[in-house]
Structure formats: structure tokens, C-alpha cells
């Protein structure tokens, strides 16, 4: 049974706050919930830390590095009993190097929370980089958008100057908590009482109607059809009641919405 007063949503929130504070280089916030005997295991051989003070010493140089952008966050409460909560998560990180290039990596983590002397503490974190998706170095993109620049990466770059509060929160039907930048989302499709979120890399089903998400998504998301809510920044062209996305997908446009969409795209900055 879950301990009264601590909800699944609260545990997920505490976890993502800890992850974000780590990559935002805020050591005091990161260490605040950690137990004195906190255990951390990272991807590298030296990243084996027993005890909070050992963790602090090991991470001194890490915290001198620039902040890292986190995207495509997903968290799930894997297990809990009266005094223990185990959360698993995965996300992507982007770090800009001194030479102006950037590194992308996929990270997975396990986070163990324990009730110790009546206080909730982070007892263990185990993080690793996906080895079958190696670090990917990209060249810093020019600004503004040019014809030889990948549009998806340009949008991601634009989002990198925003904070985590601009991410869109989803709860999928597998009970995972997901946090995406608007530019991660291509479109949402209605599916009865659910919605299906389509991103550049995956598709997943979430609770809620399109009308609910339409209220929380940026103005660039347009309802082009009763069953489709589309990120207009990904629309390449429209013709004969179809919207062609930049990746080649074709989506229907409602006849009553066609002229409004056409006018919007013609005047969008």
C-alpha cells in the first residue's frame, strides 16, 4: 500500500525536479533530498559513490560544466510499498561544447526513494547512457533558419532557450509521465476518449480529449480537423483538404477549416 499523504504524482514530481536540478547545475537542490548514505552509480567507472559527501566530491567538476538541455522526459513509478518508491525514467540530453558543437545522448535512470525517520529521502540513483545509441555530435546550427539547416533541429534549438516550465505534461495509457517540448510534437490525433501523440521518434496514447490539449498547447498548434491537432510549424504545404508535413505525412483538413488554416499559414511569422 502507498503511504498516506504521498501520491504517485508527487514522487514523479520530486524525481524530475532532482533530475533537472542535476543537469541545470544546481548542486544544493540536487543534494537536498538525498540520504546521508545515498548511493549513486553512473555510466563511467569512477561514478560509483557511497555516501552523500562522496557524491558531492565526485561531482564537483561536473557542476562546473554548462547546464544541459533535457528533452523527451518519461517517468514511471515501477514499484512502491509502505516506505519505498522506485521510479524509472529516460530522457535525452543535449550539451553545447566550447567549440560550439553539441552532443546528444539518451539517458536511462532508476531512482529509489525511502522514508527514513519520517522523512522522504532519495536513497539511490543509477543512471546510464544507451550504448546502442552512441553520443551524436552535431555542428552548431546557424541562425536564422536557412535552406541547408534541418528544420526539426532548428526548432529544437529554438526551444533550448526556454525553461522546463514550457514543457507539455502527458500521462500515457501505460501510466508513464511524459514531458515534451512543443517542438517534440508533430500532432495529436483523437481516439475516442483518448488522444494519440505523434512525435518525430514515436507514437503513444494519452488520457484526455483533443479539446483539453488544445487549451494548453501553444497557438502554433492548429485544429485542422475534428480529429487532428497539428503543430503548424511542421506543415510543409496544404492542398485539396490535405496537410503535408515536412516528413511527408499527409493529414486531412476539414472543409470548414481549410480557409482559416490557409490564411493562418500565409500570415504566420
Automatic annotation (TrEMBL):
Transferase in keyword set: yes
Stored Pfam families: LytTR (PF04397), SnoaL_3 (PF13474)
Sequence ranges assigned to domain HTH LytTR-type in this UniProt record: 168-267
PROSITE patterns in the record: HTH_LYTTR
Molecular-function GO terms, alphabetical: DNA binding; kinase activity; phosphorelay response regulator activity
DNA repair recorded as keyword: no
Keywords: Kinase, Transferase
Name recorded for this polypeptide: Histidine kinase
Organism from which the protein derives: Eisenbergiella porci
